[in-house]
Amino acid sequence: MKKIAFILCCVALSFNQSCKPDDPFTGDCFIPDAAVNITINMDLPEYFNLRNLGEFVSFESQGHRGIYVIHNFDDIYYAIERTCSYQSDLECARVELDNDILQLRCGSTQDTGFVDCCGSAYNFNSGFISGPTRCNLKTYRVSRSGNSLYVSN
Questions:
Q1: What mean pLDDT do residues 115-121 have?
Q2: Tens of pLDDT along 65-92?
Q3: Are 93 and 36 in contact (CB under 8 A)?
Q4: Cα torsion for 19, 24, 25, 30, to the nearest 10°?
Q5: Max Cα separation, the chain?
Q6: Closest CA to 141 of 44, 63, 61, 42
Q7: Cα 77 to the center of its chain, rounded Å
Q8: 60 φ, ψ to 5°?
Q9: Ordered domains of the chain (ranges, CATH)
Q10: Which residue has the higher pLDDT, 65 or 10?
Q11: What is the pLDDT of residues 41-68, one digit of tens each?
Q12: What are phi and psi of 31, to 5 degrees?
């Protein structure tokens, strides 16, 4: 009986540690809030390409470290924060879109090529693919009316 109780305690303790959820305010998934309010008229030349699947536009002055608005291959528009969800307080924790491999990666493009930050990679709908992160990227609400997109939080 003591062996069974001991085994159950060990299983309960290991389950508690391995499945512990991240605290969104102190864990690795924290991304600071920033006001977002963008109107995109896709009839304008600078946004016309958003009508095509796989295209994107970057807004550097919105969100915490910028926002990508992506017309994904599933024909849905996503507004994705460019701050990496893993150790977001690091200077290098910024996500860049790699159109060659169709992923968002944590790091930056410099003269010598891409410089990795944490090694996390995400798909175009903000879901994490690989790396140390366990969280998706922060997304913002996107609504469409005719040829206009509205991004907000």
A1: 90
A2: 999 999 999 999 999 999 998 888 888 8
A3: no
A4: 120
A5: 75
A6: 63
A7: 14
A8: -70, -30
A9: 24-152 (2.102.10.10)
A10: 65
A11: 999 999 999 999 989 999 998 999 999 9
A12: -130, 120
Give, in order, the Cα–Cα distances in Å from 40 to each of 72, 94, 136: 16, 23, 24
Which residue would you say has higher pLDDT here, 38 or 98?
A: 38
Cα(150)–Cα(27) distance, rounded to whole angstroms? 30
The pair of three-digit structure tokens given for residue 131, joined into one six-digit string: 């790396």
The C-alpha R_g of the chain, in whole angstroms, comes to 19
Where is average pLDDT lowest: 56-70, 97-111, 119-133? Answer: 97-111
pLDDT band at residue 21 under the 50/70/90 scheme? very low
Q: What are phi and psi of 33, to 5 degrees?
A: -75, 145
CA 149/CA 142 separation, integer angstroms: 7
Full-model pTM: 0.77
Distance CA 47, CA 13 (A): 53
Q: Which amino acid is at 15?
A: F
Question: How big is the chain, counted in residues?
Answer: 153
Runs of H (alpha helix) within the chain? 2-18
Task: Decide: 12 and 4 in contact? Cβ < 8 Å.
Answer: no
